[in-house]
Specification:
Keywords: Redox-active center. The chain has about 160 residues and is α/β, with parallel strands linked by helices. It is built from 5 helices and 7 strands. Strands 2-1-5-4-3-6-7 form a 7-stranded mixed beta sheet. The N and C termini lie far apart (about 30 Å).
């Protein structure tokens, strides 16, 4: 019975996220390492889009698994985008301190997600993770931290679509 309750809660949480099939916005986001990135630029790839912040303990705990799996699956067409929701204009300073002191491998994946992108993806809590198919459409979403095994299953499912 508890399992059914859990599934009901998960389904209710999923309904509060952007719907499957929704096209990603083509907003340009500043990259941590310089330049810009638009999700539209990633058509042809499966995108693992993680909304996170440096001050978020579950985000910090999940990030090593996201980076590890991003590296593992990039040869199969996966692109990881770590969309920082740290407050502007200080986000670059917070992210730099976090990357340098805690997670040097994170730098290449970080973009600064403006409020308009967070609003489209209905980001109201962190972490919030989306998978976009090769056409740039939402195929999966999760609010809250996932285990490495759960992340792996979602990546493989997204890559199969």
């Amino acid at each position: 019975m508890a399992g059914l309750g859990y599934l009901g809660v998960q389904e209710a949480l999923r309904q509060r996220l952007a719907a499957d099939g929704m096209a990603a916005p083509s907003v340009k986001m500043e990259k941590y390492e310089g330049g810009t990135l638009s999700l539209a630029d990633l058509k042809g790839k499966v995108v693992m889009l993680d909304f996170w912040a440096t001050w978020c303990p579950p985000c910090q705990a999940e990030m090593p698994s996201l980076i590890k799996l991003a590296k593992e699956y990039e040869g199969k067409g996966l692109v990881f985008v770590a969309a920082s929701r740290d407050e502007m204009p200080d986000a670059p300073l917070f992210v730099q301190e976090f990357v340098v002191s805690r997670m040097p491998d994170l730098g290449p994946y970080v973009v600064y997600a403006p409020d308009e992108v967070a609003a489209v993806f209905q980001v109201t809590a962190l972490p919030t993770l989306y998978f976009l198919d090769r056409e740039g459409r939402v195929v999966d979403a999760q609010r809250g931290m996932l285990t490495e095994d759960a992340l792996r299953r979602r990546i493989e499912r997204a890559l199969e679509q």
